[in-house]
TrEMBL record:
Organism annotation: Salinimicrobium sediminis
Record-annotated GSCFA domain positions: 21-254
Name of the protein: GSCFA family protein
Gene3D superfamilies found in the cross-reference section: SGNH hydrolase (3.40.50.1110)
Alphabetized GO MF terms: hydrolase activity, acting on ester bonds
InterPro entries associated with the record: GSCFA (IPR014982), SGNH_hydro_sf (IPR036514)
Residue intervals passing through the bilayer: none
One Pfam family of this chain: GSCFA
Length: 312
């Protein structure tokens, strides 16, 4: 008997191989996929502006990349003894004005260069609820703990922002395959019904885009979490984020759909090396450990010689 309802996964093309380049932009769930790609040494660029939940925040990043925008002091603000940008996550915050500007401009340039040669772009919005700064009218990526009365909260038209985001990707790199996912992380602070409405808007928007754009596809991470893994044992302690078991399961499904079969052998080699690098011996000076380290170094050198872009 089958005690769950598996979400059908169709093999997709073009596959992601170790010769591919994957740009990932979006919510904290895209970080999970990006970290898997990083672990297995697939060339990737993950969230250059930090985690971005809202479609318009994703679009704003791509607009900056398209225009080669140079951030200046006019684009940042000082609050709680640190400099912030409404367009980026707090990971880029700095106590030094010059540092945050350098990070923002470096992120724009790195993304511009990477996107133009990327083979795949994964875009993962998390919510359709957005916060608009009353003073400027701009939709922000992060409120940075500014008082709530400075913002208006609204349920936005996700489709327009995501279509424009996909269009910019097409303009900068017509060959790139765009993979949309919707984050399975529930935004319960918005409210239970409000979260469902938000996810419905995102899913509807993405499906309509996939229907009209040839190079856009949808990976059902949200549906896998909701339908296959519909049990709280697959959630972290906050009962909102997928736990490691769920992340690994969804990654396995993503691998079935998108990762090239010839990459599997390399992934096994990388996994062996990664586990070896994490190994902590009882006695570092022992002959057995020295032999282990020599063997591990030989495996690293052999793999790096075969695939020069891989570095440990």
């Amino acid at each position: 008997m089958e005690f769950r309802t598996p979400v059908p996964i169709q093999p997709q093309e073009p596959k992601i191989a170790h010769s591919s380049k994957v740009l990932l932009i979006g919510s904290c769930f895209v970080e999970n996929i990006g970290k898997k790609l990083e672990y297995f040494k697939f060339p990737n660029l993950l969230n250059p502006f930090g985690i971005l939940f809202h479609p318009e925040a994703i679009l704003n990043l791509l607009k900056r990349v398209k225009s080669n925008h140079v951030f200046t002091e006019a684009d940042i603000f000082y609050h709680n003894e640190a400099w912030h940008s409404y367009e980026a996550h707090s990971d880029l915050n700095s106590v030094e004005k010059e540092v945050i500007l350098e990070q923002l401009n470096a992120a724009v340039q790195e993304t511009s260069q990477f996107l133009r040669s990327a083979t795949h772009v994964i875009i993962t919005p998390g919510t359709a609820w957005g916060y608009r700064l009353k003073e400027s009218g701009e939709m922000v990526a992060n409120c940075h703990k500014i008082p709530q009365q400075n913002f208006s909260k609204e349920l936005t038209n996700a489709q327009n922002a995501l279509i424009e985001a996909a269009t910019i990707v097409n303009e900068l790199n017509p060959e790139a395959q765009i993979i949309f996912t919707v984050s399975p992380v529930r935004h319960l602070k918005d409210g239970f019904m409000e979260n469902q409405l938000s996810k419905a808007k995102l899913i509807t928007a993405v499906q309509e885009i996939v229907a009209i754009k040839a190079n856009c596809t949808y990976f059902p991470a949200y549906e896998i979490m909701m339908d296959e893994l519909r049990d709280y044992r697959f959630y972290a302690e906050d009962m909102v984020h997928p736990n490691l078991t769920a992340v690994n399961y969804i990654w396995q499904k993503f691998q079935e759909a998108w990762i090239a079969s010839e990459a599997s052998a390399v992934m096994k080699e990388v996994d062996t090396i990664q586990k070896g690098l994490l190994h902590r011996p009882f006695n570092e000076a022992s002959e057995a450990h020295q032999n282990f380290r020599r063997d591990l170094q030989q495996k690293i050198e052999k793999l790096e010689e075969k695939l020069p872009h891989i570095r440990f």
